[in-house]
Design brief:
nine-stranded antiparallel β-sheet, globular, mainly beta, 9 strands, 49% strand
């Protein structure tokens, strides 16, 4: 996790070596999921286009990408059409979950408190697991 700027998919990415570097790059410390499993390993931390935190976690065989930024933009960066999509409201926050079925989700996207959020699971994870992760971000 170096500190030189890179270009990925036409977007500027600043790798961050630690959370202090994230805070410096963004000007604030973003909210992180509280419910990652204990064995979650961070493989990369970066700031995309100067405003989006992107953290890549690996849990078991699954790779997750967590993104957050100020505003209400959709941070999923996905143009995919999903077989299943639902919007659920918990504690007055509406989150949209998409995936293969109502039991396997590959993303959660929402906006709350002036920030937008996305959790992406490369292969898809148990729907309840995705809900727990998303709802742990307050």
């Amino acid at each position: 996790m170096g500190s030189e700027r890179r270009i990925r998919d036409g977007r500027s990415v600043i790798p961050c070596a630690n959370w202090e570097a994230v805070k410096e790059a963004l000007g604030y410390m973003p909210v992180l999921p509280a419910a990652w499993p204990a064995d979650a390993g961070v493989t990369s931390i970066g700031v995309v286009d100067g405003s989006i935190l992107e953290v890549v976690y690996v849990v078991g065989k699954e790779t997750y990408i967590y993104r957050t930024a100020e505003g209400s933009d959709d941070l999923s960066a996905s143009a995919k059409t999903y077989a299943f999509t639902t919007t659920e409201t918990v504690d007055e926050i509406s989150r949209t979950y998409s995936g293969v079925t109502d039991k396997v989700f590959t993303q959660a996207v929402w906006a709350a408190n002036g920030h937008s959020y996305a959790i992406l699971a490369e292969s898809g994870v148990d729907a309840d697991e995705m809900r727990v992760l998303a709802e742990s971000i307050l």
